[in-house]
Fold these 4 entries.
Entry 1:
Amino acid sequence: MSFLVDGLQYSNWSEAIFRQLRAGGVDAVHVTITYHETFRETVANIERWNRWFELFPELVFQGFTAEDIALARRTGRTAIFFGAQNPSCIEDDIGLVEVLHRLGLRFLQLTYNNQSLLAAGCYEAEDGGLTRMGREVVAEMNRVGMVVDMSHSGERSTLEAIAHSTRPVAVTHANPSDWHPALRNKSDRVIRALAESGGMLGFSLYPHHLKGGSACTLQDYAAMIARTAERYGIAMLGIGSDLCQDQPDSVVAWMRAGRWTKRVDYGEGSAEAPGFPAMPRWFRDARDFGALRDGLAAVGFAGGEIDAILGGNWERFFHTSFGVAVPEQKRAAQ
């Protein structure tokens, strides 16, 4: 069996959840450590993670390179890779990209639903694409080895990021929009561009991104993955569960509204107060990856193909994404 890697979680972390990761055999997970926080607030969140690493060293440790996935497997632990779902953590200072990378940040979304200093979010009526700063930040992320994540970005912004980036781009947690037309899900044009550029798509299990919501069946979800593989190939497919386990509903208000509005931002097309929907009964937490494996086998995937989707592809992508780029003049001298 290959590595098991989850491309995105934003759970309310605890010893119980860390033990579920181990019970589920999860070798690595990309975790959101910041949404709308400033740089200093993000550092405070890293401090909190440092304390968890200190308290539970037999369960989790911080991942910095792709090799840490293999280390996690050898030592029976889970490697935690940090990510941000909004560029607010770099404020208006491009130098903070490298600082945060040195602190372990390996993924940065250019937008979270709204227009940012870097690009337009998927909830904006107008998508002007990458901004001037956006192009510079993408280049800096390419240089230091930080993944450009376009999960919550608009169509034009996503396509421009794919075209502008010298490293493959990721959509860590979304599904095809022709399967379920959520604003956050991605079009054929975007997924095809990702595939052609060596990027990655992490299939989301968050109910708002699923056809049928919480009632989505494992068979329908697995069939959607099979159709995507037929269209674009298997090499760019992974899982980004978007688990928000044990989070209080108040966190949804922070995710959607942050500090940018005084009103309640319902989001996701909902007319009700924001709250977390129930997960599908076949995927409640990390211990259910075995059920997902069974579902993929049931729709015709071979063992090696399932291994690739459940972690092998992410592991390969980490290898090409996290290393510091060598300047051309230095590379020529080597």
Entry 2:
Amino acid sequence: MCDVSILYSFRRCPYAMRARMALLVSGVAYAHREVLLRDKPAAMLAVSPKGTVPVLVRPDGTVIDESIDIMRWALAQKDPEDWLSRADAALVAEFDGMFKHHLDRYKYAGRYDADPLRHRAAGLAMLAGLGERLAAQDYLGGASRGLSDIALFPFVRQFGGVDAAWFAAHAPRRVREWTAVLMASDLFGQAMVKLAPWAEGPD
């Protein structure tokens, strides 16, 4: 059994991004196993048959395979920036639910047989609410970044990346600025380092 936690991750997955950022800021030691989603390792499927990332396997064998749960677990070990005190569970749930619904149907309209412009408009309306909150403060929970910022940010970033020119012209200014600040952070840079896919074999 490994003496540190093992994280199965995929660099471009927004769920995995936020889990990695929380683990990194917490300072919790973990072994990163980058996976190819088209060729998921048997070791990952053995501990989490649903086959999605991220998956964290703790040294005692306990498996955490929901990204928000990984974030909260990491921060419960150590929370140097006090992220948990700035966690808005309702806001995170709203964006994990409805915003992700619209994002998927905007980005992958063909897959869902959806009208992308309708879902883009619905997503933009939700971003307007973030813009109102950010008009009065630098981050969603106040003057410093917290769990809510890091939980939502990868999905807002993905929304903006579907059509960057449209996002620059239409997204609320404060949402664009907030997204840019988080993208430029050292923490995000560390979380997005490219790693070779993990190959199964003797540890």
Entry 3:
Amino acid sequence: MPVDPIQLSKFLSFVLRHKPGEIGLTLTSEGWANIDVLIEKANAAGTKFGRADLLDVVATSDKKRFSISADGLSIRAAQGHSVTVELGLPPQEPPSILYHGTATRFVDAILVEGLKPQSRQQVHLSLDEATALRVGKRHGKPHIFTVDAGGMHGKGFKFFRADNGVWLTDHVPPEFLA
């Protein structure tokens, strides 16, 4: 039976970012899972796919949500974890401006509290407004915040760039939002 790549991508996001225990999977502290073990446990839990299916989803994902280890034996989510992982990304100087998409219903709270990671480990920021708009639309009527990442960095805030190009930081205070 052919594997639906969208469903497989959603499944991989679920177990690699949020609930590895749902299929009895254990992630390393850096978020890696052995591919063969992942496939074995997923198949045993009723989600049937093989290595070729997994590699195809990784290669064709427009959002590049997953990374394969250099030795080809392990996989992890590039970012977006609600489980505690240490991705081991080095701090980097961000572009001067980054963007964050959200729903308009959250704007007032964000203007008071800033951007917080909510259920994730870090705040996700985009390089361009178009990406932020797509993210905002997933949550309702979209609103795009412009983030003074250069100003934040100058004040000592750390930024990290995930394997898929998403910028991460722990918190964006309201004074850095427009």
Entry 4:
Amino acid sequence: MNLEQLRGFVAVAEIGHFTRAAEMLHVAQPSLSRQIATLEQEVGGELFHRARGNITLTAAGETLLPRARRMLADADAIRVEMGELAGLQRGRVRLGATPTLCVGLVAEAMSAFHPAHPGIGLQLTEAGSRLLIERLTAGELDMALITLSEGLAAGEPALVRTPLLTEELVVVSATSAPPIADAAVDLARLATLPLVAFAESYDLRAATDAAFRAAGLAPTTVIEGAEMDAVLRFVERGLGVAVVPATVLLDRPNLRSVRLVEPQLTRTISIAHRSDVHPSRAAAAMREIIVATAAVLAAASPETLRVAS
């Protein structure tokens, strides 16, 4: 679910006509129809009753409309507030993030940051949390989005870590295959399914391996050692299922998810920076947009994502 899909949905809901809504948004009507179809796949149901010359909201559409308006208003407020900051015409921010966050939170945040600050460049480092902490400590990054929970080694400069989101891990499968469960799957059932496993360097791999060991279970692994993009593509092709963070499903209409229970696995996403280095204005502005974007994502997916306390 992204902002362009929500803008299209709100426009069609308010105008009651796909073609006129597309003209107002300055997009092609087939493109708008695809956006709405993808959004309907994301929410799991039709948003409009479609009849010739008469477009009305379904019950699901009526539920989504006020939330969509709030999220778009929040996004507009972010752009206005960030645009009012002075002295941000040029610059560079060195941001580190884990691969799963790059395809979710980072992508959404940058879609808000770049239009507000087109002169600010982003140097993105994609790596695991442990390596990101090392590079942050070494002064190679301005900030990092991490999921690691262990304490820092003695002697390292202190990092300030601010929790942003608590995110559930979900089980994904291809929409072209039969659903593996109605709403949730437990670890015992997951162990019987063909599993596409991440590389051992992934924190996600460590979390799922630990859960299987604690339950005395052994997963049925069909592919092992893949990176995030490959894992999602393998699952889309029907080769197996995977355990992933809920946010990686943004703009993935070929994947469906069910919640993982017994046990429920979660991770806390934090933003970190060195306490002994004052952030630049560009870095501070980017951090504000990342924090605000995290709140928007949590509001859009309250079942699997919540603002960290």
